[in-house]
Amino acid sequence: MAHRHFRSTNCANRSLGQLNIRQPHFSIAVAAARQQQHRAAVLTQAVNGQIDINQIYTSSDSVTNPYVGPVKAVRLKVGLGLESSRSLQAGEVLLLSTPLALISHSAEELAGATPPPAAAAAAAASSQGVIPGEDDAGDDAEDDGAADDESGYDEGGQQYEATDTDIDQLAEQLAGSSSARTRAWLQFLDDGSLEPSRTSQLPDLLTLAALSSSSSSSSEGASPAAAAVAAPDSSSSRQLDDNTLLDITDLNVQVLVEDDALLGLNAAAAAAAAAGGSSVDDGLAAGFEEPKTLVGIWPELNLLQHSCSPNTSVVAHKSAAIVTASRGVAKQAALSRNLLGANLLAPLGERRAALQEMTGSTCMCLRCRDEERTDRNFQQLMAEIHEACIQQVGPDLEQAVEVDDEAAMEGLRDQLAAYCEVVDAAFSKFAVKQQTQIWLQASLFKLYELTAIASAACGAVDARLLELLAALAGEVCPGSSEHIFWARQYRNEIASDEEAYFDGALRQAEKTLLGAYQARYGKGLSRGLYKQLDAQAQQPELELEFEYE
User: Fold this and answer.
1) What residue spans carry the Acidic residues bias annotation (predicted)?
2) What is the DSSP secondary-structure string of 107-127?
């Protein structure tokens, strides 16, 4: 039979079901002229959207200055958060957050380490104490440290949890920092005290960003705006002793993993330049450096609340966290991110259990509230099918593929198809609304994912399933690694059909894949750079390939 391939661009291990397939978290002193000049530049960029994301992604220079787009800090009933200052289009770059303190761990350092049970993204949510729509009981939830991703979740560090040593080192960096931006942000970051005098203040993101290059070592010439940011109310400025800095670090630390696609693109650009090549394409076959795990404090990122239907995506690049609007957002709408990683594509009960373990809080976003109203019997059915996929079908399919047991693969394919029929019948029986059905299907993502893999294992890739997987991931978590991975599989399958060139199907599939990339990396991503990222994803040294005969 013809060989069938599923390829992933993510070099960090990711589980598809239980298959080990790699898929595709004082005082301010600054020269007035320099501070005002930088602030003016930030303001100009924010108003006009002038940020060359292609240059950032391909440049060998580190990202040193934060960028603030059309967002602002606001006080939500659950704490500090971010909202859009105008309506946003999908793919707009909203923030470029640079760390106040940072530790990086290479893949070699972490080799052999046992993945922790908690997730690093928990710290981001715990820094606010609550999740949008949660009840007040979550306010006092204690932070258990860092947790699983983008990301070894999609947003940041799935294989690593910040250790006590990491916390101590980051706190020492904060204590020894002379950065005006760092000293100013320390007045706003949560230390667990929920002091009214502190929590009543809202950070001015633009002014704080303008302090990025300034030092607090010289107090002369500090502008009034900078002084106001540093200590909005001198009577409320907190005393930053060692214990307070440890509390701030513990509650705000996050773990992110460098985006491997961007890392590979950067390495290819460097290799092409060193070899005298004229483009990044000339360096795509060069070596690939494993992504580093970054442990740090990205203050703007900490303001993003969790949602099970997030409207932003986050990637880590050159120590910076880049936040992009992953879908259209209305003016003055709350901005949110995914703290659950791949668990975002699980049933409501599993998502809530994971978030409760991570943050002690409950998500009450629109998706969660809608799923909560679904008939209890249907919810139980979904939970049982999902558990069967995780506990039984996934491992059995992995073993059948490994030993090339065609009969077992066909039996598992038929079992999964039967599950799909049961779900379709339940949608009709319970008269589920269209939007609710989409969310529920996304919660059964593992079922459709394993069905697609089993079909390919039996020698027949189902293009409709690939299209469904890309659509579901794009609806719930646009710009995620799942979204890009399955959009690419769909495009590749359509491209293998000669008729697709004439009926417009290939053009639509390409548009879908481009949209997935732009939701992750920004709509400013040039078509050339998109093509280079896509070409890099096909490089043999960057993929784990499974052949089904």
Assistant:
1) 133-153
2) HHHHTTPPPPSSBTTHHHHHT
